[in-house]
Design brief:
The strands form 3 sheets. Strands 1, 2, 3, 6, 7, 10, 11, 12, 13 and 14 form a 10-stranded mixed beta sheet that branches. The protein has a two-stranded antiparallel sheet with strand order 4-5. The protein has 419 residues and is of the alpha/beta class. The protein has 17 helices and 14 strands. It has 2 domains: 221 residues, Periplasmic binding protein-like II (D-Maltodextrin-Binding Protein, domain 2); 186 residues, D-Maltodextrin-Binding Protein, domain 2, CATH 3.40.190. This is Sugar transporter. Keywords: Signal, Sugar transport, Transport. It comes from Bacillus coahuilensis p1.1.43. Belongs to the bacterial solute-binding protein 1 family.
Length: 419
């Protein structure tokens, strides 16, 4: 999956020192003094790189934190390549950062290792943890224990070309059956496809489960089940039978956002990251967004999110918590998300900034409450890799879908058993 969404996972500001002073009575940390103004304690925050605009904003947020917490200094480390490999290596070597980014996709596996500090004993009522979108928060919990707080997210929504829709005199589809029919009307040979698709599990997971099937059962692959195959078949048929859908490589594009911007697809399913990209790269294209059409009468979408987590081996836990709570607090999150690089994981912040009513982002915010988070057990990396390896062969018409997914499932589960 092209993880362009990673660039938009930011953070920030809130919670006063008075609120935080009593947060750690049962945390297990022996740390009491978090430094002095003359000799501040230094904590390390590690994450991946982002756009220049986002990097500048994060630096401002960290400066704001240090100004309001003069006894704490933050050393920000950017890990440019192989982020999780570097983090895991450093954690094993007991040289891990105090606080770091953790993608929901990787969270279950890292939680199992015991290297993350549980956060529940630090969280106070004033922090209002219930303000977070529930599916996003649950992605960083296990057995009721919270190990991370989501700093932002993006769901997926339907992006549509307003001019193409107007010229074809068609309405924005609200059901998947309507999407299939509208795609036929909007397709113009191989010059313009009605629908731009992503032949990967990260984008089709919610579709795969739309008929009641489960992609993952007991932390093992289950996508060869009848309900999953049946749910995915229409997606493949749009490409092979109707010839009204295509993937980016079919038209020389790198991802569906580019495919849409080049007006080689009248509709695509994309995330919040596509909005600034389209506005800056293809300003002449007039587009709108809508919630993804319902399948089998039910709403569905994906959510991609990243949290701040604390290293369980950190010797500066109280200071680390103050940073995490500041970055994911209401005021701070409002500062970070105000420019729309990512969506606020707190409902109150989304409402205050007006994103829930925004013409382009409203559909993305609406999907947060029912989204399937891209996180399902510690073996999802193995499960998704094998799905993608075989699903593409069915998408290209090289073999039947059920056969391709049966092989993918068998291979994935063998790898899981041999770990």
């Amino acid at each position: 999956m092209k993880k362009k969404w990673l660039a938009g996972m930011g953070i920030t500001v809130m919670l006063t020192g008075s609120v935080l002073a009593g947060c750690n009575s049962d945390s297990g940390s022996e740390e009491v003094n978090t430094g002095t103004v003359e000799d501040p304690i230094e904590i390390t925050l590690a994450g991946w790189g982002s756009s220049p605009e986002e990097a500048e904003l994060l630096q401002q947020v960290l400066a704001d934190f240090e100004e309001s917490h003069p006894t704490i200094k933050v050393k920000h480390e950017v890990i440019a390549d192989q982020y999780m490999d570097v983090i895991k290596t450093r954690l094993i070597g007991e040289e891990g950062p105090d606080v770091f980014y953790l993608d929901a996709f990787e969270a279950p596996g890292l939680i199992e290792t015991g290297v993350l500090e549980p956060l529940d004993s630090y969280i106070t009522e004033e922090f209002e943890v219930a303000d977070f979108e529930k599916p996003l928060l649950e992605a960083f919990q296990k057995d009721g224990t919270t190990y991370g707080l989501p700093k932002g997210y993006s769901t997926l929504a339907l992006f549509y070309n307003k001019q193409m829709f107007e010229e074809a005199n068609v309405s924005v589809p609200t059901t998947w059956d309507e999407l299939v029919e509208v795609s036929k009307t909007l397709t113009q040979g191989t010059d313009v496809y009605g629908f731009g698709q992503n032949a990967e599990l990260a984008r089709t997971y919610f579709i795969a489960e739309s008929l009641g099937g489960k992609v993952v059962v007991d932390n093992k692959a289950n996508y060869a089940s009848e309900d999953v195959v049946k749910a995915l078949q229409p997606y493949v048929d749009q490409h092979l039978v109707d010839n009204t859908a295509a993937q980016p490589s079919d038209v020389g594009a790198g991802w569906t956002g580019e495919m849409f911007g080049q007006e080689k697809a009248a509709m695509v399913i994309e995330g919040n990251w596509a909005i600034p990209y389209l506005e800056s790269t293809f300003p002449e294209v007039e587009f709108g967004t809508a919630e993804i059409p319902t399948i089998n009468g039910k709403n569905g979408t994906m959510a991609f999110t990243v949290s701040y987590v604390m290293n369980a081996a950190s010797e500066k836990k109280q200071a680390s918590w103050e940073l995490i709570s500041y970055l994911t607090g209401k005021e701070g999150m409002e500062t970070w998300t105000s420019k729309g690089f990512e969506l606020p994981s707190r409902q109150s912040v989304a409402e205050k900034l007006g994103f829930d009513q925004d013409e382009l982002r409203g559909a993305l915010v609406a999907g947060a409450s029912y989204a399937t988070v891209w996180s399902e057990g510690s073996n999802l990396p193995i499960i998704s890799t094998n799905f993608n390896n075989q699903f593409v062969s069915a998408y290209l018409g090289e073999r039947p879908l059920d056969e391709a997914l049966a092989e993918a499932q068998e291979t994935a589960n063998k790898e899981i058993e041999n770990q």
